[in-house]
Amino acid sequence: MDKRLLTIQDVSCVGQCSLTVALPVISACGIETAVLPSSVLSTHTAGFSGYTFRDLTGDMPAILEHWKKEKITFDAFYTGYVSKAQIPIILQIMDETSKKDSLRIIDPVMADNGVLYTGFDEDFPSEMKKLCARADVILPNLTEAAFLLGEKYAGSSYDSSYISGLLERLKAIGPSYIVLTGVSFEPDKLGCAVYDGKEIKYYFNHKLDASMHGTGDVYASVVAGALCRGWSVYDAAALAADVVVESMKATLDDKDHWYGVKFEKALPYLIDRLSLCKK
Predict the structure, then answer these.
(1) Closest CA to 121 of 171, 164, 83, 150
(2) How far, in Å, CA of 257 to CA of 265, rounded?
(3) Is the pTM of this model over 0.85?
(4) What are phi and psi of 123, to 5 degrees?
(5) HSE toward the beta carbon, residue 144, CA cutoff 13 A
(6) Dihedral sign, CA of 229, 230, 233, 237?
């Protein structure tokens, strides 16, 4: 039977991130994708000025009630950029619209490079921790992992023992799996660590000399789509890393395209990879 996933995150109308990434990527995975916008912005916040912002928290309870009236349920949930006030409502949505054994994928979008994103206060990580505690899979970067644990960001000064300890402490929060992104032990390698409470598996790609907005959203969306197709967490994480690399390669030569990553160019690659490995 076909699966239906609900993704809850913001809509940045221009900028190739958040819902404008999640909807096409997960749809390309062959998964029916329902959306619940947490907010609407004219553009994303990195590099643009004077952008508009509308919070949609007030719409969420009525949307939930309508779904319940129509007996709408979901096989999976995937959250991205949300506000602190929305977290209790999201937990309620998950509890009240879940099918049996619905999958909960949480990308704790809140920080990078040791700094919280604009609009989040110091209390936000503790609220996001409540959402992660109820997750099947969480997808933090190194900064988000540290903040979820109330720890200082380690920067680039870490080794494999630090990563293993970090993963163990994240597992204690409650998720079944952790996919830790942005892990690097060598200057020319970048990848992820996947932990199920028993074993850590790493996956690395050659590190490209570029940083592009929206790559995290591409990564999390591919993971969500692949998991809904029955892929293992490790295989989904590895596929997502490869798709991000293909997206970045498609963007590198366009110096005017500073505001996002050309993930659309990598969708045929994603579809081919999915068709080659039917799960």
Answers:
(1) 83
(2) 13
(3) yes
(4) -85, -15
(5) 26
(6) negative
145 neighbors 152 (Cβ within 8 angstroms): no
DSSP secondary structure string, 3-68?
-EEEEEEEEEEESS-THHHHHHHHHHTT-EEEEEEEEEEEE-SSS--S--EEE-GGGHHHHHHHHH
The tokens 């929060």 sit on which residue?
173
Distance CA 260, CA 122 (A): 27
Distance of CA 174 to the CA centre of its chain: 17
pLDDT in tens, the chain (279 residues): 789 999 999 999 999 999 999 999 999 999 999 999 999 999 998 889 999 999 999 999 999 999 999 999 999 999 999 999 999 999 999 999 999 899 999 999 999 999 999 889 999 999 999 999 999 999 999 999 999 999 999 998 899 999 999 999 999 999 999 999 999 999 999 999 999 999 999 999 999 999 999 999 999 999 999 999 999 999 999 999 999 999 999 999 999 999 999 999 999 999 999 988 755
Q: Are 174 and 134 in contact (CB under 8 A)?
A: yes
